[in-house]
Amino acid sequence: MKPLRTIPLWPAVRHLLLIAGAVVLLAPFIWMISTASKPPEEVFSSELHLIPHHFALWDNLKIAFAKANLWRFLLNGVIVTVSIFVLQVLIALPAAYALAKLRFLGRDALFALILFGILIPPQATAIPVFLLLHKLDLLDSYAALVLPFTISVFGIFLMRQFFKSVPDDLVDAARMDGISEFGIVWRVMLPAAIPAVTAFGIFSVVAHWNDYFWPLIVLNSEQLRTPPLAVAHFRNNEAGTNYGPLMAAAMVIIAPLLIAFLLAQRRFIEGITLTGIK
Amino acid sequence: MASIELSAIRKSFDGTEILRGVDLRIEDGEFISLVGPSGCGKSTLLRVIAGLEPQSAGEVRIDGVSADGIRPSARNLAMVFQSYALYPHLSAFDNIAVPLRMRRLSAIERLPLVGALLPSRRRKERCIRDDVARVADQLEIAHLIGRKPAQLSGGQRQRIAVGRAIVRQPVAFLFDEPLSNLDAKLRVHMRAELAQLHRRLNTTFVYVTHDQAEAMTMSSRIAVMIGGELVQVGTPTDIYDNPRDIRVAEFVGSPKINILPGQICDDGRIEALGVLLRLTSSAASGACRIGVRPERIDLGSGPFTGYVVHAENMGSEAFLHLAVDGSDARLVARIDDPRRLPPIATPVSFGFAMDAVRAFNAEGKRIEVDSEHIERVRERAIV
Ligand SMILES: Nc1ncnc2c1ncn2[C@@H]1O[C@H](COP(=O)(O)OP(=O)(O)OP(=O)(O)O)[C@@H](O)[C@H]1O
Ligand SMILES: [Mg+2]
Fold first, then answer.
1. Could you tell me the fold of the domain covering B256-382?
2. What is the ipTM of this complex?
3. What one-character DSSP code corresponds to residue A186?
4. Residues A158 and A267 both lie in one domain
5. Same domain, yes or no, for A161 and A236?
6. Which terminus of chain A faces fewer neighbouring Cβ atoms within 10 Å, N or C?
């Protein structure tokens, strides 16, 4: 017979701590789902309960979709985040390739500057960029949402670190085979770096899908709104905030991210642990 | 097929000179090996020939035409890398097809989706498929053609890399230690295969290795590079028997040549380990070094005495490590029959024939020695 006390103390404590952390992180989400499933009377009742007495998720979703053009906002989110990501990749990969594999004067100084760029918070440059977009007459357009983010310093850094692990011989072999330098970026480096690109894609898409600050500044038109703005829209309704539909809408806009992450999860983990090609 | 001429090639990295003026003429269809210790600049020279690295000074001429400023792919050379450098995301077939696609398809035909629809692309693809299949048959890799590099063994990857090199029929092949990642048995096998490949293709091969056995067995000429300079270029026999420099003598041959401290006396006679040899030299008197290959040491008789400190039995032959009496020199002697191996600490006497001696001066340069002169004096004395 096995003795009963087989659970060692330290792993048990460790797991308890982790579970506590997970609960803290998950609580807002659980509360969101709970609120989204409650009818208005229950949302405003003084007693706290997690499981709604009367399940009203479908009603809340219906109200949310009726009140605002959620599909349109989701589409805006997709257009903006995908454009940003594609442009970021188009710019970051060649830049990262040059920084990792080409030898030219001032390369290390340039890379140091790029690292420095990571330290600058986007809010610091918000006003100059806003004025620039104003001068170009691009405010209140998709371009205003996309252009300021096309050069991702973090993306260049991440891809450069990954490209460093690609053997030089592979690049030289490609040159012997007649592939041009840009061809090497897209035909040799990109396929080798898919995990890193996926990881970067998740960072980028999550950041810009959830971005509230920048769209709030540059947008006026309702039809250009991105998902976070759309959710905020539920708040300042004449009849007071309607939390049930608001939370239901919040669930709707988070869902695409969750699904995307679950699909790309394995690649994502591979990417941030930066396992290069052997 | 092409000849390659290197004249006064120099290359520096960040102020340190790696290649110090390399002159070499590689003949059309020749199999030349570039050997030398690690870090001497062999790979760098190969990369200069390939155009992957611009030289700091000097000129590369391929078939008499200066290759300066010509892109690597336009030089029409093929290179096989030590790490094979196969594209990890492509199948073996696609790896071999890449150089053909890059040459034969236009930029539009190479586009991922649009290109596949073009009828001209389909025609050319069929042609490429035939060429790849032909090479795969030659190298006996037809059954591996659908696999990714990660699903292949080292030897199989090596073949795919060779396939990628030969498929576009380059004017010369550059090999950078292609066998050094294989185990010993496979290495010997691939050695024979590469030599056969050279005979069949009859194309110029430039083969970099730090394994002198590979160089000796495969090449028609060997160029020994040490410290960024070509110290000697010659046939394998010439390099082995007739080294012009002590570093060449020491680098080529396994086990290493025995080097004994020696002296050139004022009258031109040479002594080694304090024993007067029947040799004279016209070189300036002073310290010198005497080289004798292990297989030229005769055990059992001779003017030197010592004892056995270590024995290596290789099965077909054996090597005895000897300590020499009255000197801290160690030497290695070969015994053809390992069954006659004397036990450790056995005292032995030994000597060597005078034509086995290669003498080098204090700078390590070869000095000519003369044995007939003394013989003749003695003959005359007997008569
Ligand atoms: N890109 C580079 N930048 C700076 N130094 C370099 C570079 N490439 C090579 N070197 C230096 O040049 C020297 C010769 O290198 P090389 O690769 O030609 O040696 P090798 O003879 O091929 O040696 P091995 O047998 O180990 O492959 C080395 O000391 C190396 O550090
Ligand atoms: Mg090398």
1. OB fold (Dihydrolipoamide Acetyltransferase, E2P) (2.40.50)
2. 0.85
3. I
4. yes
5. yes
6. N
Together in a domain, A199 and A144? yes
pLDDT tens per residue across all 278 residues of chain A? 455 566 688 888 999 999 999 999 999 888 888 888 888 778 777 777 778 888 888 888 888 888 878 889 999 999 999 999 999 999 999 999 999 999 999 999 999 999 998 898 888 999 999 999 999 999 999 999 999 999 999 999 999 999 999 999 999 999 999 999 999 999 999 998 888 898 899 889 989 999 999 999 999 888 898 988 888 877 765 556 778 888 888 888 888 888 888 887 777 676 666 544 44
* Tokens, residue B343: 């036990």
- Cβ neighbors of B289 (< 8 A, separation 6 or more) are B246, B259, B260, B261, B262, B359, B360, B361, B362, B364
Residue A5 within any structural domain of the chain:
no
Name the CATH topology of B4-241: Rossmann fold (3.40.50)
Phi-psi region of A24 (alpha: psi -120 to 50; beta: other; left: phi over 0): alpha
Residues of chain B positioned with their CB less than 8 A from the CB of A277: 88
Interface test with B, best of A165, A168, A176 (most B CBs within 10 A): A176
* Token digits of residue B92: 């073996």
The domain limits of chain B are: 4-241, 256-382
Closest in B83, B89, B98 to A169, CB measured:
B83
**A78 & A40 share domain:** no
CATH of the domain at A230: 1.10.3720.10
Does some domain include residue A3? no
Task: Kindly determine whether residue A172 and residue B77, on different chains, have CB atoms separated by under 8 Å.
Answer: no
Probe residue for ligand 1, chosen from B11, B40, B175 as the CB with the greatest number of ligand atoms within 8 Å: B40
